[in-house]
Amino acid sequence: MSNGLASKDLMPNDLSKNKCSVCSVSDSVNGLVFGALLAVGLGHAPAASAHGTVVEVTQTAVAVTATFDNGEPMTDAQVLVYSPGNLETPWQKGQTDAEGRYLFAPEAGTPGAWEVTVRKAGHGGTTTFAVGSAEASVATSTPTVKTSTPVQKWLSMAAIVWGFVGTALFFSRRSSTETPALDPTVLPQPVSNQPVSNQPVSRTAADPVSVSGSSGGQH
Amino acid sequence: MHISEGFLPAQVCIAGYGNTGLLTWYSLRQINRQGNPNAKIPKASLLTAAFFVASSISIPIPPTSVHLLLNGLLGVVLGYFAVPAILIGLLFQAMFFGHGGLTTLGVNASMLGFPALLAYHIFQLRFVLEPKEQAFSQSNGSIWRIGAFSFLGGALGLALTALIFFVLMVTLVSAEFDVQTELVAVTYLTLAHLPLAIIEGGFTAMLAVFLQRVKPELLTGR
């Protein structure tokens, strides 16, 4: 297949603004295809003005932009494009450029859900986009992973970390309250010492209460 | 270093879940045998948070960039708790950030969890190789031995993960992709993890030595 387009030549300057910062694949639309039809005039006009020219511009290209979630472009990543009619054999293969972009022109006569897979070193992803009927010239796309703003990302990260910290606090609190009750050597000391110190010495030896108190910690 | 969704055959994903199930069962069984698992949950929970955040911290190592893994560190400090900690951390990473994926969660958990257990056992080797007169003491070992074995555990845990990743990615490339191009990319990424292994090994050693000096009971015992 040779339908891959050189993004360096055809990519509008503002096209990168359409990029979705997904971990694997992002997408954008509105690449340009310049289909130049040269009609040769065969009429009776003088030779100097014999050539009429028709320049036709059709917006039928799809631009794939692949970035890592930290914004770094996936350069030289492999790209597979699958047409709606055959999702087993790639309709086109290629590689992203230095900015993580890849342009191709889906067949206008093949409407449906096209699929793009990007891969580099085990990382990447798959996204699909719909090409409308024959007269539709602009494709729409749906990333497989929803994008999130940095604020959303940091907020969700903070919430999850707080969940872990809360779990740690919960279990550390439970263990600190349970520890004295589980340790039989801690409680008997004040129980056994208190009555002994407050009672007369002469009564301690004969009093059965003080004897039972000293062994109370073993119950 | 997470394997994304869609790049592994279904059989491998299922086998990954099966392997992770066995690994988790074995780890929970060992945790239960150690007595009072609740006492170690705070430490495990905090390190799970660190593991979860670590994947968002990328370190540029040209021509690519890598992110922290910390699976070796978790193995050294948490012991068998490292496996459920890694599993939970990976689940949150996949759900919220798209790192890895739910279908590859089993493979990723095995890829990071098994080396974590290896790191734990490497760290425990400090007791095996200690002098005979200290063999029956209750100490964690000398500072130098703790530092050396925790470094080895942290570094080799990550290195083994990188090796497993390399083997999986090279042997399971779909026929539609160009194998040679993918091989070069995976090789670069794997080699970029070697400096990271040294960095994480050093970080693990610093943490283990710090814990030994400040609160030695937090380190895994015999």
Break the fold down into its secondary structure elements and pairings.
The complex is a heterodimer of chains A (219) and B (222).
Chain A: E1 4-5, H1 7-10, E2 26-38, E3 53-65, E4 78-82, E5 92-95, E6 101-104, E7 112-120, E8 123-131, E9 140-142, H2 150-182, H3 188-198, H4 201-204, H5 208-214
Antiparallel strand pairs in A: 1-6, 2-3, 3-6, 4-5, 4-7, 7-8, 8-9
Chain B: H1 10-34, H2 41-54, E1 58-61, E2 64-67, H3 71-78, H4 82-97, H5 105-128, H6 143-171, H7 179-214
Antiparallel strand pairs in B: 1-2
Helix pairs in contact in B: 1-5, 2-4, 3-4, 3-5, 3-6, 3-7, 4-5, 5-6, 6-7
Question: How would you explain this protein's 3D organization?
Answer:
Chain A is an alpha+beta fold and 219 residues long. Chain A is built from five helices and nine strands, in the order βαββββββββαααα. In chain A, the strands form two sheets. Chain A has a five-stranded antiparallel beta sheet with strand order 5-4-7-8-9, with no helix packed on it. In chain A, strands 1-6-3-2 form a four-stranded antiparallel beta sheet. In chain A, a hairpin with a 2-residue loop joins strand 7 and strand 8 (123-131). The longest helix of chain A is centred in the C-terminal third of the chain and has 33 residues, at 150-182. Chain A is elongated and about 85 Å long. Chain A starts with a strand and ends in a 5-residue tail after the last helix. Chain B is mainly alpha-helical and 222 residues long. Chain B has a single domain, classed as Arp2/3 complex 21 kDa subunit ARPC3. In chain B, 68% of the residues lie in helices and 4% in strands. A two-stranded antiparallel ribbon of chain B has the order 1-2. In chain B, a hairpin with a 2-residue loop joins strand 1 and strand 2 (64-67). The model of chain B has no long low-confidence stretch (mean pLDDT 88). The chains are: A alpha+beta (219), B mainly alpha (222). Chain A binds chain B through residues 22-24, 68-70, 72, 76, 78, 80, 89-90, 93, 95, 117, 119-126, 145, 153, 156-157, 160-161, 164-165, 167-169, 171-172, 174-175, and chain B through 2-7, 36, 38-39, 41-43, 45-46, 48-49, 52-53, 56, 58, 64-65, 92, 96-99, 165, 168-169, 176-178, 181-182, 185-186, 188-189.
